[in-house]
Amino acid sequence: MLLPILKLVRYKNLLLIILTQVLIKYALFEPFGIAITLSDFGFFLLCFSTVCIAAAGNIINDVYDMETDRINRQEKQVLGRNISEKKALTAYIVLTILGVGIGFYLSNLIGRPGFSAIFIIISALLYLYATYLKNVLIIGNLVISSLVAMVIIIMGLFDLLPAITPANKLTQSIIFSILLDYSLFAFLINWLREMIKDQQDMNGDYNSGRNSLTISLGKERTNKFIFLIGLIPLILILFYIYDYLFENIYAVLYALLLIVAPLLYFLIQLLLAKTKRQFSSLSDILKVIMLTGLLSIGLYQFILL
User: Fold this and answer.
1) Which of 160, 225, 297, 302 is disulfide-compatible with 23, CB 3.0–4.6 A?
2) Are 35 and 163 in contact (CB under 8 A)?
3) What DSSP character marks residue 79?
């Protein structure tokens, strides 16, 4: 029973969230000795809250995707086979209450009660995405990608921002700008993956009456659009390497071999992709790029110190 539950909440994505926030806290914030707000326990609560809300979002998305998943990924479908819809909805409610409740407690703990609205808005957007926004051309993909970026930004809002003083403002702003760079990276890579998933799921989306770029433009034109969007992170990463990492040969090699090279390979294969299997492979490549990109957070203590 445990494996179906883990699959339902998409445990691999949740582990990536945990890894990202741990790297930010202990491989970016701590080595530079910058002023922070959250204790280790406070950080644990923020991470746990984020994971609860993300897991709840994955569950409600699957609940409203049951019919489509029967066509797109019947062999991998958990809901309705291993776990009932009623139990899934109960888990969604419990996880949402936990996530938002802890977020409310943390917001008051750091003296920013208004920040509790962040958790409410994120939970509401995940529900709206599952029930409506995913059917809205482009908007749905942009919304879910923005929420992925928030996993990174929220660390700055809760750990850095409340600790800013006139004396440390410059240092805090530099670290915060690094977080914003990574949030943009996560946003763009996830947006590419969402569009690839639309290519992969065309049949199920069409039969369920859902709109997507693939249905609107066709696979070939959508591939070209994704290619153009894919050039944006490629150009930005190359600029970042030249502007910030150029003096550290190991950081340059890491970025070129583990981020730029896979992204170039993705773009080349994208122009040739036609089948569901090919799009599935492209999605896996983007997962690797996301992982290696986020793991590079741990390099900054060696680059800047």
Assistant:
1) 297
2) yes
3) B
As a whole number of angstroms, the distance between CA 204 and CA 267 comes to 25
- Please provide the size of the chain in residues: 305
Dist. CA 305–CA 303, nearest whole Å: 6
Give pLDDT tens digits for 103-143: 999 999 999 999 999 999 999 999 999 999 988 889 999 99
Side-chain-facing half-sphere of 296: CA atoms under 13 Å: 28
Q: Residue 42 and residue 243: Cα distance in Å, rounded?
A: 35
What is the reported pTM? 0.94
Task: Give yes or no for a contact between 187 and 146, defined as CB atoms under 8 angstroms apart.
Answer: yes
Q: Which amino acid is at 95?
A: L
pLDDT at 125: 97
Residue 6 CB: number of other CB atoms within 10 A?
A: 15
Question: What are the start-end ranges of the E strands in the chain?
Answer: none
Phi-psi region of 38 (alpha: psi -120 to 50; beta: other; left: phi over 0): beta
Average pLDDT estimate for 240-268 = 92
Structure token pair of residue 153: 């930004």
Distance CA 44, CA 21 (A): 10
- With 0-12 CB in 10 A as exposed, 13-18 as middle and 19+ as buried, what is 98? middle
Q: Label residues 126-140 b or e (16+ Cβ within 10 Å = b).
A: bbebbeebbbbeeeb
User: What residues contact residue 6 under an 8 Å CB cut-off, 6+ apart?
Assistant: none
Q: Using pLDDT thresholds of 50, 70 and 90, give the confidence band for residue 183.
A: very high
Residue 49: which of 95, 7, 115, 88 has the closest Cα?
Answer: 95
For the stretch 48-70, pLDDT in tens is: 999 999 999 999 998 888 766 66
